[in-house]
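Input chain follows. Return structure tokens only.
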Amino acid sequence: MTKDAVDRLTPMGVMVLALLREADMHPYEMARLLRVRHDDRLLTITNGTLYHTVSRLQREGLIDEVGIDREGNRPERTTYTLTDAGRDAVVAWVRREIARIDRPAEFRIALAESHNLERSEVIDLLRARRSGLSDDLAAHSDSLRKAADKGVPAQVLVEVERQEALLDAEIRWLDSLLTRLEAESILWGPSAFTDSDRYLAQRKAAQL
């Protein structure tokens, strides 16, 4: 796996690779499973985009075909598996995006897939994120104070006020999450998914 491969990954590509960490799947099952899990709240899921993403991931050596099935009158379905390079790419992308504060859409995907990293690493990355958010909050608060001192009309500062409030809220939420992670009150890693009834039901629904 090269750095370029990680740089070229899209949020959809990351979610496809993360699905294949769980089990080999065909694209139809991937799309159904993403919708069953309501991952369409994180990104727009269309069959065309997903199939295009799968093709690109295969060309880049991040996934590979393992078989072609056809049942009844259904069209042929190609099943894919994750390569070692693909497994490394998921981890590298999630690791890079969790600490960044300038890509909120990517952060949501990285956070959703953060269980692919070790708990201790996630804690360290989220602490780094908190530091960046804290600096950003201080900058926003300072800008508001200076603007008020200069008599800047409040009507042109409402967006800055909103961003200040959002930063403050995320820091407080992040502190709560870090406390739970450090106390190990949140199950983490593969053991949290071990053949649970809900997981098996989701897979079954996606395979229909």
